[in-house]
């Protein structure tokens, strides 16, 4: 195919300077690659009442290798500044007719006045069109035509008499024209997996080809993709032929030691890889080097690390297979048929005594049997001769629970002060995030940042963390703090939700066109046990509240009571699912508005009369 693009942009202010850097992909396979030609780029500026044009020099074109199948062409528009009009065009010539470029009609953060895509497809090729986004086409038409195409029939290697031949064929064509105008910018809101899933665009998947005589089905199947992947040296060839993997015994003999329990062996192998290999790229589904080179370097991509893990487990006789998936930020992938460019990640699936464990050794602080949150993006595929199947990692399946306990007592040594302690136990995924943050920042800096999260100006004096190194258990954060109430004041206003509160609605926009996609369901509990400040009594107490959301899909409870000496509060927030349709947005926004308002209410303490 021949792909031509022309773009014109006016840069209104410096926030849009990034648009002056142009990047586009090129596909490569073996010795063949897509060719760029007719690159034209010019920047127009108004200087002293005259339009001054600055053209791109050929020496300013750069080609960057992304991986073995992808290059990136890049250039930066010259003399771009506020008020500039930049215009560029280029042509890509490709033999990879299965790889017709998709087209985005909408841009992140920038509106578009006119976006048009024309595609002429001969009847020799049958494509499936996929339309994404919510905005309708201003123009959507298809005109029939006719053209003559040259086809090359390769030589038959099994029959020396059948030589390569080229012949012409008359074919009907359909010219598709899609236009969107005045397209608003796509603004990335809270709790959206990735704009890729929702931005206005079209993409193509080759379904059939015609050789002049019959149509051939070319739509890939998972069965065929699995067969191909298991033959590839950069993916699964190691799984069914380990005659060259004798060197793995150098690893396994000291790692597994004398353990005979298969689950314990799997854990020892997993932790060996997780603790001794550094992941340099978390977005690569294949091997960038041989397994032995990965072993020697002690580093590599997520594909290197997790495929090495899979190989070591299999070498020990443990049923392990790679699982291909797309992470949340990379977009959804199709369960029905494989599109390899939509898969950017690989993990390891282990089956032991009827139990299944999914492992990712590229993250050192995850723990055995856990995956990072961005892997929970729906469809994934087990790649195996015997166990190949589709599985689904859904955010709703993540069982995170966060519990916070706050105790506050009167300071017996200092009048007008309260001392307290807070204990927080997050879920497994949040514990992984905390461990990772502490590894990057150190405990001191991490807890310094944590101090700013407290309400009522609590002065945190001591902090510590339990189970930091036991990655199979949630961490436990503990802090001690001081609250100064003041000895001379007659009234104390106190917010009892010191930590874990929503101080603003996470859903600020009045309307939303796209789903709400939280990383996992919410299950938070906050408990407060507080001595009434010495010399004071409760004057006002927030009212109790119980609210159910959407027929039981969520709930919020605010239960508070007082005695002569104590105030007790139990606050729970639950959402039983992670994803909500746009139609649910208004009610979800109202639900959180109530939560924010309620958690912002204060207890009023009044000094006792003498």
Describe what this molecule looks like in 3D.
- The chain has 610 residues and is of the alpha+beta class.
- The chain has four domains: 1-98, no CATH class; 102-219, no CATH class; 222-393, C8orf32 fold (Roll); 402-607, Jelly Rolls.
- The protein is 15% helix and 41% strand.
- The chain contains eight helices and 35 strands.
- The strands form nine sheets. An eight-stranded mixed β-sheet has the order 25-26-24-23-29-33-32-31, covered by helices on one side. The chain has a five-stranded antiparallel β-sheet with strand order 20-19-18-21-22, covered by helices on one side. The chain has a four-stranded antiparallel β-sheet with strand order 1-8-4-5, with no helix packed on it.
- Strand 16 (278-281), helix 4 and strand 17 form a beta-alpha-beta unit.
- Helix 3 runs antiparallel to helix 5 and helix 6 (428-441) crosses helix 7 (443-451).
- The longest helix is centred in the middle third of the chain and has 15 residues, at 262-276.
- The protein is globular, with a radius of gyration of 31 Å.
């Amino acid at each position: 195919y021949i792909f031509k693009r022309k773009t014109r942009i006016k840069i209104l202010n410096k926030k849009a300077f990034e648009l002056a850097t142009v990047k586009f992909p090129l596909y490569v396979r073996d010795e063949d690659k897509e060719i760029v030609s007719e690159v034209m780029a010019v920047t127009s500026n108004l200087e002293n009442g005259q339009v001054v044009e600055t053209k791109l020099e050929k020496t300013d074109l750069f080609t960057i290798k992304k991986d073995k199948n992808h290059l990136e062409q890049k250039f930066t528009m010259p003399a771009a500044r506020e008020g500039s009009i930049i215009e560029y065009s280029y042509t890509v010539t490709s033999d990879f007719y299965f790889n017709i470029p998709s087209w985005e009609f909408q841009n992140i953060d920038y509106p578009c006045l006119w976006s048009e895509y024309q595609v002429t497809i001969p009847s020799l090729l049958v494509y499936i069109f996929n339309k994404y986004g919510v905005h309708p086409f201003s123009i959507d038409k298809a005109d029939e035509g006719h053209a003559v195409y040259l086809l090359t029939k390769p030589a038959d290697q099994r029959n020396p008499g059948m030589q390569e031949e080229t012949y012409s064929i008359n074919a009907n064509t359909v010219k598709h024209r899609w236009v969107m105008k005045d397209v608003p910018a796509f603004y990335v809101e809270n709790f959206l997996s990735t704009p890729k899933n929702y931005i206005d665009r079209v993409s193509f998947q080759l379904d059939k080809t015609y050789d002049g005589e019959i149509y051939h089905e070319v739509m890939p199947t998972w069965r065929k993709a699995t067969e191909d992947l298991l033959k590839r040296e950069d993916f699964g060839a190691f799984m069914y032929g380990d005659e060259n993997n004798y060197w793995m015994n150098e690893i396994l003999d000291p790692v597994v030691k004398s353990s005979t329990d298969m689950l314990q062996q799997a854990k020892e192998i997993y932790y060996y890889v997780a603790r001794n290999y550094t992941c340099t790229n978390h977005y690569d589904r294949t091997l960038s080097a041989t397994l032995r080179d990965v072993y020697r370097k002690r580093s590599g991509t997520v594909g290197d690390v997790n495929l090495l893990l899979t190989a070591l487990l299999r070498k020990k006789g443990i049923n392990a297979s790679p699982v291909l998936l797309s992470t949340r930020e990379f977009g959804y992938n199709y369960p029905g048929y494989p599109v390899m460019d939509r898969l950017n990640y690989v993990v390891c699936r282990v089956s032991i005594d009827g139990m299944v464990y999914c492992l990712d050794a590229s993250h050192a602080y995850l723990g055995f049997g856990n995956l990072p949150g961005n892997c929970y993006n729906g469809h994934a595929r087990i790649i195996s001769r015997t166990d190949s199947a589709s599985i689904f990692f859904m955010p709703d399946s993540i069982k995170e629970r966060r519990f916070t306990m706050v105790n506050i007592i009167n300071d017996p040594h200092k009048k007008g002060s309260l001392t307290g302690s807070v204990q927080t136990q997050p879920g497994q995924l949040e514990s992984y995030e905390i461990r990772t943050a502490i590894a990057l920042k150190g405990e001191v800096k991490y807890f310094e940042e944590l101090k700013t999260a407290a309400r009522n100006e609590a002065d945190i004096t001591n902090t510590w963390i339990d189970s930091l190194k036991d990655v199979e258990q949630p961490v436990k954060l503990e802090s001690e703090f001081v609250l100064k109430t003041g000895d001379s004041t007659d009234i104390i206003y106190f917010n009892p939700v010191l930590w874990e509160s929503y101080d603003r609605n996470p859903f600020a926009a009045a309307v939303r066109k796209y789903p709400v996609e939280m990383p996992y369901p919410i299950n938070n509990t906050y408990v407060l046990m507080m001595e009434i400040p010495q010399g004071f009594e409760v004057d006002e107490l927030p009212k109790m509240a119980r609210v159910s959301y959407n027929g039981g899909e969520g709930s919020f409870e605010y239960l508070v009571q007082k005695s002569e000496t104590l105030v007790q509060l139990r606050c729970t927030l639950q959402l039983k699912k992670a994803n909500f349709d746009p139609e649910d947005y208004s009610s979800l926004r109202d639900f959180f508005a109530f939560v924010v308002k309620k958690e912002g209410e204060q207890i009023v303490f009044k000094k006792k009369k003498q």
